[in-house]
Amino acid sequence: IGSLMEDDNQQGLAHFTEHMAFNGTKDFPKNEMINYLQKAGVRFGADLNAYTSFDQTVYQLPIPTDSAALFKTGFKILANWAGKIIMEGSEIDKERGVIVEEDRQRGKNAQDRMSKQLLPVLLKGSRYADRLPIGKVDILNSFTHDKIRNFYKDWYRPNLQAVIAVGDFDVNEVEQLIKENFSGLTNPTNPRQRLSYDLPDNVEPLVKIITDPEQQYNVAQIMYKQRGNVIKTTADYKKSMIHGMINSMLGARIQEIMQKGNAPFIQAQSAFGAYQGGLVPNLNAFQSVAVSSSGATLEKAFTAILAENERMNKYGFTQSELDVAKKNIAAGNEMRLKEKDKTASASLVKRYLSHFLSGTSIPSTEYSYELTNKLLYEITLTEINAIAKSLITKDNQIILVQAPEKEKANLPTEAQLLAALKNASNNVTAYVDNSVNKPLLDKKPVAGKIISEQKNERVGVTTLNLSNGIKVLLKPTDFKNDQIIFNSFSKGGTSLATDANLQSASAVSLIPASGVGDFNPTQLNKLLAGNTGRAGAYVNSLYQGYNGSAAPKDIETAFQMVYAYATNPRKDAEIFNKNISDFRVTLENKSANPESVFGDTVQAVLSSYHRRAMPTTIADLDKISLDDAYNFYKDRFADNSEQTFVIVGSFNIETIKPLIETYIASLPALNKKQNFVDNGIYPPKGKVSKTVYKGLEDKASVQLYIHGDYDYSVDTNMQLDALKAALENKILERLREK
After folding, report:
1. What pLDDT score was predicted for residue 479?
2. 52, 2 in Cβ contact below 8 A?
3. Are 114 and 212 contacting, i.e. CB atoms less than 8 angstroms apart?
4. Hey, CA dihedral for 709, 715, 719, 725, is it positive or negative?
5. pLDDT grade, residue 102 (50/70/90)?
6. Cα–Cα separations (whole angstroms), residue 578 to 462, 513, 536, 620, 654
7. Cα separation, 385 vs 152, whole angstroms
8. How far apart are CA 298 and CA 291, in angstroms?
9. What pTM was computed for the model?
10. I want to staple 15 with a disulfide (CB 3.0 to 4.6 A). Which of 52, 323, 358, 425 is the partner?
11. What's the pLDDT tens digit per position in 413-441?
């Protein structure tokens, strides 16, 4: 049950009931439950939690199994939520303020104000539009106690409930615990009918244009609603796989456009999935979003994303695109099978919950693996393109625009948006694949050597010293069956940039983000289709290095990428300048957002207004040079002799050694001594108080920093963590509950 079950005078009480579950039950009066669990190490709000939506209320209780008494009490707690909440009048009244403040904390911003205008359009003509889970503030502040008690009595009943238990326990014992704790709960003699609600179709397009003074971006989107059904049969699963492939291929096309200097949008995406993230059961939508640089260019951006949809609709996809999508699905499918015994409990709970709420099938990993492989072989390009054609419908269309208030006069009109939709297929041509058919590396590097090896048996780490000075720490683990991850670091980073070169050095991340060697990011993804090996390079304020991951069979590819990023970085003016241009748009509207202004102020104050630590401005962007950023990147990776690699995962040390010699021991090295530079960026001395007045709503944020030097050690850090946890509990009790 959720907010859809509320009467007119109960709006918000489904969510309120969820809160009351933590404020006193038959076996745990007042806050005894929270106190009991916190003493057991279960954190309120982090581990112990709940949520309420339109159709369901879900309570989550992760609990350790190392104490039999605590474990058994967990089921007692669940049963208390299910049917033994007390609803004391004084506790109800105390909780009113908590919920109103929760509404203030999450809302009272541009997104909240605009969503209140959007939801009546997105949910037009349905009960959903009148039953937002947060409810109405006037009802929350004034409802009489009987209203919430009646809601609990009517709807919290066994025939609407399920208990899901996943974890390290004896199944028979847990089944018995559930029977003991829940069999005493009874259903009402004359239960209220649990109705289902739907969203009506719309023949004509629904259009809504909304502006807000604090909105930062110009956004246009279109949705094509479709009736759907949950995955219960092989045919359902096959169709969902096809939708996934379409999303993947269309997404790759849009990413390719966004890398171009003349891209009509700064961000865009199109995908088929559950309508509004599953807001209304059995309703899907093909949804496209485009973000433009200004109100004046929004029509062009909207037209461009529509054109991509029409290109798909008119010409379909190519066999080469489908081959890439299939390879990636096959690789993921293989990894899931190998990791079947490492699946997180939370992942299983999510699947069982979906089955209870909507009836989705829950096949085993082995069954899914076999079925996926079978369907990958069977699915044809003709089938893909036929379903792609069905995604763009002539009815059930919704067009939405959200933009800054200052752009109001420049935005496209409703008539212009509808005209763009009508003419979207004009002048659309077929997609041309731009894959690069060559290896990642032109030739294998000349291998280096492992010159010494030490083993630390106590922690299971082997340290290799390489001929180029690099140190490698190897830690085989069994946490995952099919995963290796690695990270490396050496001192320096942007701290070594001169003041004059700082802005370009700060943009150095755009070099590895532009691809590597002859491959831009799109081409690189196509080249590596079906291969899990991935790696990248980074430069932060104090360090530079490499990171990556792979299944054991693909670790060579990840190491090849490390070598490529070190020796053959990509200098792509189009991608680099497009990123700078997009960032300029973000900065132009940044001051409209109160949180951004506050955050910038905090950053400036905490760095004592040091010129190297101030927030980036538009004037700073004008100082950025691709040549300078590229040269700084090359300088940071010219000497790898002090890099330390940490490699962890499912590998055999003797098997991985030759690959380390080939790709890591061969990295360029100059054997210089390097260090980062202390540029004098410190928080201010003494007491500093700064107040920022920004924003339209009655809402405030306070940040308090207490800083100073201390003895850095494991013991001191543990004590500080304990102090932090104790303070958080006190703050929760004082500020939230009182």
Report:
1. 94
2. yes
3. yes
4. positive
5. confident
6. 44, 12, 20, 16, 45
7. 49
8. 7
9. 0.93
10. 52
11. 999 999 999 998 898 999 999 888 899 99
